[in-house]
Amino acid sequence: MPPEADPRARAIAVFDSGVGGLTVLAALRRRLPREDLVYLGDTARVPYGTRSPQVVTRYALNNARFLGGFSPKLLVVACNTVSAVALPALEAALTVPVLGVVEPGAAAAAALRGGHVGVIGTAGTIRSGAYQAALGRVAPGVRVTAAACPLFVPLAEEGWTAGEIPVRVAHRYLDGLVASGIDTLVLGCTHYPLLRAPIAQVVGPRVRLVDSAEAVAEAAGARLSRDGLARGEGAGADRMFVTDLGGDFGALARAFLGRPIPPPEVVDIS
Amino acid sequence: MPPEADPRARAIAVFDSGVGGLTVLAALRRRLPREDLVYLGDTARVPYGTRSPQVVTRYALNNARFLGGFSPKLLVVACNTVSAVALPALEAALTVPVLGVVEPGAAAAAALRGGHVGVIGTAGTIRSGAYQAALGRVAPGVRVTAAACPLFVPLAEEGWTAGEIPVRVAHRYLDGLVASGIDTLVLGCTHYPLLRAPIAQVVGPRVRLVDSAEAVAEAAGARLSRDGLARGEGAGADRMFVTDLGGDFGALARAFLGRPIPPPEVVDIS
Fold it and tell me: Torsion angle, CA of B232/B235/B238/B239, rounded to 10 degrees?
């Protein structure tokens, strides 16, 4: 479709490996009610967190190419794994500004001024060291301890977000972090806010939790203002695409977005 | 590569969504020591069990097309989800005979002559009704109760195959089946044999477990003999391809295959 003549009227494009990024979409909608948002969830190839950086980068470029057709004014990468391993490749391939979730999440953690930050995420995110590096830049001298929590994504997608099983799984992944003395914990995966209750129960009230979805929405607003690209009027519209519509998409999307949505459009981008 | 002049010398091609099919590869190697086996694991797009039949069929055709380059004499679909939803599409598109795991698994369950068969598998497999239909054909009148167990695949891939967490998860999925009075349980997913111990503990000694990997290896041997395509001499070789080599592939493959393997070749088939 033709780009809007006024660049401020263009949409913000958002993509994620699947439904997890809907927590970012919800935060963007709250923070930027006037902006049009176009979301792509790559549900035909989710999850990304177990894949190699090469494959994650290939999939991210596919997604960005599809969203480029909407001539967006900003591309928000609502996936921690992509933000951790593929941001340089996206920036090199695209002319639109790209915003990932890792830098804003690290900055939000640093703002809490703790001395020992825990980071949890997918195997791909943790292995990349991206949060560790970003925290080292914004909070030099802070101690960082990271842990991959592979079962948290399927637990959240199964809807088992309360009760004994998620608490036991959280103990198995997080007891070591708690014992190491963290005072801050970055939820470095867009699925993890759904497991906030069992995570909070296991780490206890002295550990502050950082949700990068809120942080990236703040950063997106600041970026648009700085570039003179914020939309000054009107009510923003949402448009939603997925690469596959599995049986439980509606229920899942509702859990992540916090409200029901109409069925998204299904596209084949491969 | 050029097909072997003697059709008996051609390889058996095997594919799965990832590493789960290595349980089938191991059974084929035991049953058919003289045959060459070519395996493709679509690790860049695993899992299939949560995806729509349309996407599973597209991926299955990609995989079969790649393996067609080896001019195999038989294609074994070592993935229950593909066997359940995409077998007709594969048979229509290919000239090579195709063998899935559902029919042999249902036949093996029927041979035990129980009165009430439970079937567990991915959401895609169970939603398809393929096992229910196959059991209806080979054992008319048998009662069938099916349940999807989505967390079993990530549990097996995380290596949490013993201890309290898998037992609790198994209780949550299987207590209803046990209460309904099943006497036989089909492990309708190639990952589930790794969870055999907690599954057996939860269903108890009166429920007989059926592993479709053994059943499909038997069926493959019978099919080659019937068609005069069995290899009469020599020691078969294995060749292995994956579409992505994630960080833990070696350890995972070893768990599923029961022995270490050399690193597979990585191919981009998308």
Answer: -80
